[in-house]
Each structure stands twice: as structure tokens, then as C-alpha cells.
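Homework help thread (please don't just give me the answer)

Our assignment gives two proteins as sequence + C-alpha cell strings and asks us to describe the second one. The first is just a warm-up. Here they are:
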Amino acid sequence: MTTQPLLQPVRLGALELPNRVIMAPMTRARAHNAELVPTDLHATYYAQRAGAGLIVTEGTWVSPDAIGYI
């Protein structure tokens, strides 16, 4: 049985990916603490998805004044 192309390594520019699964960014907006910074919940979320060849993380704002939504 052969390995499916989706699960084979691939080179993407300078990156060597272990597989061709790419997780698109999704805004989770879970930084509800006073500092609006990532928490252990964020680390767990991405750790659970670490099998993807590449994870594009959600965007973050540069200051409280730069939040584009409530």
C-alpha cells in the first residue's frame, strides 16, 4: 500500500513540512484576560492540532486600541 500524497512530506519554499495538511487561521478571540494575551487555553488548542504540517495562527492586535471587533 502506498502513502497518500496528503501525508507525504513536502518542501514549501525554505520550509520542509512533514505532511501537506495546512490549518488555516481562525480567529478564536479567547484572550479575555486583562492583558488580552494568549493563555494556556491557546497553547492547548494549538497543541491538539500539532499534527498538521503547517499551522497559520490567528491574528493578534498590537494594542487594545487596535481591536477590530468586540
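The one we have to describe:
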Amino acid sequence: MRDFEIINENLRNALAAFSYVRHSGEVGETPGASLVHAGVNYSLFNTALLTEPVPGGPVPFSKVLDEAESFFRKRSAPWSLWFCDDLFTSSERRRSRISMATRGLRLMMEAPGMIARQISEPDRALPEFDCRPVGDARTRADFSRIMSEAFQVPPGMADDVYSGEHLWQGPLRGFIAYVNDEPVSTTGIVAGGDSIGVYAVATMPRMQRRGYGEALMRRAIHLVRLETGITRSVLQSSAAGYQLYLRMGYRNVTRFSVYVKA
């Protein structure tokens, strides 16, 4: 697979992990897309991810949108469309914007897709911390709290998604850095598509710019690499983390776009 396809395949696995948020969650496959209903009323967790090129896939892009709309309408769920720009030709990308606009899909965010065959050694001393896996009630609550404060997400929304036990029984693995028994940073890992996907990298605002996010991310990748033998890792970068990821050996190879439908 090409680099962007590796990243897209890992993202497919990561988005599918949110079908574990509720017992009512489900994953549906339709020609050209992977559909995930998380069982919650938040569009970013009810997702349609494009999985085939446009044009050249099994069905036209408009048909993919029709199937996604039908899937989520039956579940009365707001949803979002995720796609890698490299799955579109330049001319089809322009046409796709018209198709999305006529369906009420609006651009919410764009993020570089990055890949590293193996991350580089740190170029600075990193802080010490206690690394704990997410699993029990306390770590689930702490993960949710950091998500809320770092990303300015309403606490109730973060709790709905991250504090339940069922989510953590799926492919998403969470890690938390503690300092003096206080939660500081999070990293989420999904191994899939022959790569380690890095997600939910966040640090409590008062502890940012001290290296905890990088240190925990490195630890989490190392632990999963020991278990799986996979050395390649992928991520979608925020603006805040972009320069750090370049220093860690990641390359920007594509771009992902997310459109939401209320």
C-alpha cells in the first residue's frame, strides 16, 4: 500500500473503535466507505470514511453520500464524512465540494496525514512520569477529563464517549501519564493496517510545553511495538503538534478533511 493508504486504513480501524462507545454501536460497510455509528449524538463519532478512490471506486461519490445519509438517517444520528484528499483526482475534488454542499455537509477541519517508518530518538531530555493503561473507573475518568480540558470539549460530551467501560474493550488502547498521582497527558493507540495509529495526544493546559505529551506518546508506541512487532506509526496532526512530529521523524504525506452533517 502507498503511504496515504496505510494511514487511511489505520484511521478506518480507529474510527471503528468508537462503535464500542455504546452497546448499540455498529460498523457498516458500503461500497466505497466504512460507516460507524457510535450510539451517541455527536457527529464526530458517527462517521463515514471514504475507502476507495474517486473516480475509480466501485460506485460514484454521490452514491457513497447517498448510502451514508441513509445509514445515519435510519439511526437519527448526526454524522461526519472523513476522507483522504489523495483518494480524489483534482477535478473530482472540486466536484465533490458541490455534492457535499448540496447535502448540507460543511468543512469542520483539515489535518495533515503523517507517517514514520520508525520514530527518531528524542532531541531533548524528557520528563519522568508514571504510565498507566486506561481501564478502571479512575483512568477512564481521567482520560475523559484531559480530553475535555485539552481540546475544550464539554465535560458531558467527553464523559459520554470516553468514561464508559465498553469503549476500552475494543481496539482503542489508552495511556495516561501521571505526575505525583495527578493525570497529565493522554495517548490513544490503535494497531491496524500494519501500522500503529496515534490518536488523542493531549496534555492538561497547565502542564503543556514540558515534554509530557511527547514522552507518553513515545512510551505508548514502544509498548505496542514490543507486543506487535510493528515499527511504522501514523497520525493526523493538529497545528500545535506538527513541528514536534516532524522532529520525531514523521513525514507529511497527505491531508485529511472532515465534513459534518448536523
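TA reply:
I won't write it for you, but here's a hint about the kind of observation we're looking for: The longest helix spans residues 212-228.
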